[in-house]
């Protein structure tokens, strides 16, 4: 079993790279953003609460995210491993995540950080806003998401660096170049 985190700021390419990696290594891609959006589309109570946070550019509370992710892991018990995209976003989530994996007799193998300058993140999200129709991709919310990333999410990197699970990947490469850089690192784990 191989469990990986694809990490980076909003717009760094986490979703794109996670999908490519999942396909290449036959892993289950779990995106907390996709899982949350699915709950919102269903109109569930959890989805309505989550929407109130994301519409303002804020992070959804840890307990809600962990509950959704644990359920998704349990639904895919026979997976060869997982790629966690967009999780954990806080040190508290990272700690709970570690416990959640241990309770399922699993562990995390690596975190790949798509290192991308803020101006590139903002440019990519503005472009995505024109093509995706996502309500949370507007200039004000994008700027707030980048600020929140630096304040609340980036400290997660130190958590994984301390556990020797951190690998920096150049997030400004082409999609193919970034995918190859990650695949080269995954090959070292296998």
* CATH structural architecture: 3-Layer(aba) Sandwich
According to CATH, what is the class?
Answer: Alpha Beta
The chain-level structural class is alpha/beta
Q: N- to C-terminal separation?
A: 10 Å
Q: Per CATH, what is the topology?
A: Rossmann fold
List the helices and strands and how they pair.
Blueprint lengths: L1 E7 L5 H12 L2 E4 H11 L2 H10 L7 H14 L5 E5 L5 H13 L6 E6 L2 H15 L6 H15 L2 H6 L4 E5 L4 H15 L1
Parallel strand pairs: 1-3, 1-4, 2-3, 4-5
3D architecture notes:
- The chain has a single domain (2-185), classed as 3-Layer(aba) Sandwich (Rossmann fold).
- Helices cover 58% and strands 14% of the residues.
- The chain has helices at residues 14-25, 32-42, 45-54, 62-75, 91-103, 118-132, 139-153, 156-161, 175-189; strands at residues 2-8, 28-31, 81-85, 110-115, 166-170.
- Strands 2-3-1-4-5 form a 5-stranded parallel sheet, sandwiched between helices.
- α2 packs across α3 (45-54), α4 (62-75) packs parallel to α5 and α6 crosses α7 (139-153).
- It starts with a strand and ends with a helix.
- The mean pLDDT is 91.
Briefly summarize what is shown.
With 190 residues, this protein is of the alpha/beta class.
């Amino acid at each position: 079993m191989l469990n990986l985190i694809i990490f980076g700021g909003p717009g760094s390419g986490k979703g794109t790279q996670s999908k490519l990696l999942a396909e290449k290594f036959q892993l289950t891609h779990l995106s907390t953003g996709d899982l949350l959006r699915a709950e919102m589309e269903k109109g569930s109570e959890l989805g309505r609460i989550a929407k109130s946070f994301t519409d303002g550019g804020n992070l959804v509370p840890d307990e809600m995210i962990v509950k959704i992710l644990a359920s998704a892991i349990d639904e895919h018990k026979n997976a060869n491993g997982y790629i966690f995209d967009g999780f954990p976003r806080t040190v508290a989530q990272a700690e709970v995540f570690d416990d959640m994996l241990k309770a399922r007799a699993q562990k995390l193998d690596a975190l790949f950080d798509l290192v991308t300058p803020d101006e590139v993140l903002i440019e990519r999200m503005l472009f995505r806003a024109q093509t995706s129709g996502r309500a949370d991709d507007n200039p004000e919310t994008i700027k707030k998401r980048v600020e929140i990333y630096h304040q609340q999410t980036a400290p997660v990197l130190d958590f994984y660096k301390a556990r020797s699970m951190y690998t920096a990947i150049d997030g400004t490469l082409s999609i193919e170049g970034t995918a190859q850089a990650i695949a080269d690192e995954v090959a070292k784990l296998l």
